[in-house]
Amino acid sequence: MDSFDAGAGGLLRQPKAVWATAGASVVAFMGIGLVDPILPSIAQGLHATASQVSLLFTSYFLITAVAMLLTGFVSSRIGSRKTLLLGLAFVVVFAGLAGTSGSVGQLVGFRAGWGLGNALFVSTALAVIVGAAAGGSAAAILLYESALGLGMACGPLLGAVLGNISWRYPFFGTATLMAIGFLCITAFLKEQPRPARKTSVLDPLKALGHGGLASAAVSAFFYNYTFFTVLAFTPFVLDMTPYRSGAVFFAWGVLLAVFSVIVAPRTQARFGSLKVLGGSLVLLAADVLVLGYGDHTTAVVCTILSGAFIGVNNTVYTELALGVSDAPRPVASAGYNFVRWFAAAAAPFFAPKIEEWTDIHIPFVVAAVTAVLGALVVLVRRRALTLPHSRLRSSGGTPMAEQLEPAHAIEDGVTVFAN
């Protein structure tokens, strides 16, 4: 039985607490792509430019990045359950307020508050799922990536359906769904054991002193710039109705989910994680380059196709971030996300600006270059990015090195390239 089959079996046998957390995670990830189909509608409704509306992503992810330094600090003091509920409460309040915005400045500000809540929830949810899921960390990561993929797929669809009525409705819809998630967490999740040592604000930064984790974070930074150029800038290029744009990004999200949960584990088992990641980044670069220079139909096809490469990348990066260093998983995840989310904040801001300074093609050229830079980091730092022996075993006793890096041998407690 290969790693995916083992993980898939574990996916179906989870405690209610895990399902409640995963369900709320779906809605949290829906909030990222929710505004995609309605970006042009928001710009029209609030008399804003594309670069102003793109700040919805910039404020959201800028606050998310900074808040990553606080998530471990908060959860290690008040507990995972209360941190999840606090994050959900922030999202409910600020998503609801976003729907009442009278100007793009107000909407950008409310999205920042939403980003704070999402940071508290998402980073803690990953730690809760990994800690409580049946089937070991491999099954937990697949479950988390399933939630991410489903949320990314359904977010644009919900945004299109509700946004076709009014651009305000998707925000109210998200607030309602997150309120339901709040009730589910309250009902099904018991307080999780707290770490023996309280986490400081600086711990995630100290964790980045590990060469492997720092390399994963830097590579993911370049990748995320490409990812969020596609997510935040492409809707203006496609210039479609909310329904049509929602359908495009729904198909994109479906590919993201399928490739993150099904394709990524199988290709990793056959070729090794780093080869898969490097190859996927290069293919993503080629895809966005064609997207930028193709006609409208080509742009639609390439937008959807990018979901496949993004799905593979998300899974591999998550596994690297959680396993490449000896830092506690929540701390490693916080440090990794602190770095990469800055690119998610930068891309929505710079892509429209680059178009204003040059033309509509160049933002995609820049995005292709950043994807290649991410692949180069993987190539140059490949030895640092292999998983240490101490973090290689799932609860089922199968060496995760066999799941992630079959092309590597284990020598002296670390994995090294055998070829």
TrEMBL record:
One of its GO terms (molecular function) is transmembrane transporter activity. This is MFS family permease. Coiled coil: none annotated. InterPro entries: MFS, MFS_dom, MFS_trans_sf, Tet-R_TetA/multi-R_MdtG-like, YfmO-like. The chain crosses the membrane at residues 17-35, 55-74, 86-108, 114-134, 141-163, 169-189, 210-233, 245-264, 276-294, 360-380. Keywords: Membrane, Transmembrane, Transmembrane helix. GO terms for cellular component: plasma membrane. It is a multi-pass membrane protein. PANTHER family: MULTIDRUG EFFLUX PROTEIN YFMO. Pfam families: MFS_1. It is found in: Cell membrane. Its main location: membrane. The keyword Cytoplasm does not apply. The keyword Transmembrane applies. PROSITE patterns: MFS (PS50850). It comes from Streptomyces echinatus. Residues 17-386 form the Major facilitator superfamily (MFS) profile domain.
